[in-house]
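Look over both lines before class:
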Amino acid sequence: MQQISRMLMKLFQRARLEKPGQVDPRAAEFTFSLLIAMYDRSGTGFVKMRSAAAALIALSGDTLLAKYRAFFQFYAVPDGKVPLITRSALRSLLTDLNQIPAIVGESCTLSCVEIATHDCFHGVLNSAIVEEKFLSWLRSEPAVLLWLPTCYRLSATEMVSHQARCR
């Protein structure tokens, strides 16, 4: 937890320097509290760095494709020259990401994660998939992660301004 707290302090300190006046001074504290609420419900004092990174990626202002690629990088396992996502790694990713809507009472069951994993690996004979297959599956907007592109689209529209007058 101390590692995550220090990382968040550095992250938001850099953000404050890049965008003066746009970052709440308590952003690191609030984000840390959110991560604890999502990933340490039993009060063990331990949060997996990979889970915290997945949440930060998902909640970032980056593009969907950039987020999807980052998920792959964090959860893929090296297999020779090509990194691959295994079924268990995909389950871990989906379970970690599912904690975000769960914090507001909108989670799905473990069976949703299993169905999504089965769907992603449909027609795949190997025990793992390459990045392109993973990205293709995510672009199809699987139900278990439908909240992610929806939130992205909502945040993207916040910046839209039209130079038209209404009557």
User: Anything to note?
Assistant: Helices lie at 2-18, 27-39, 49-59, 64-75, 87-102, 110-120, 131-139, 147-157. The longest strand covers residues 82-86. The chain is about 60% helix and 5% strand.
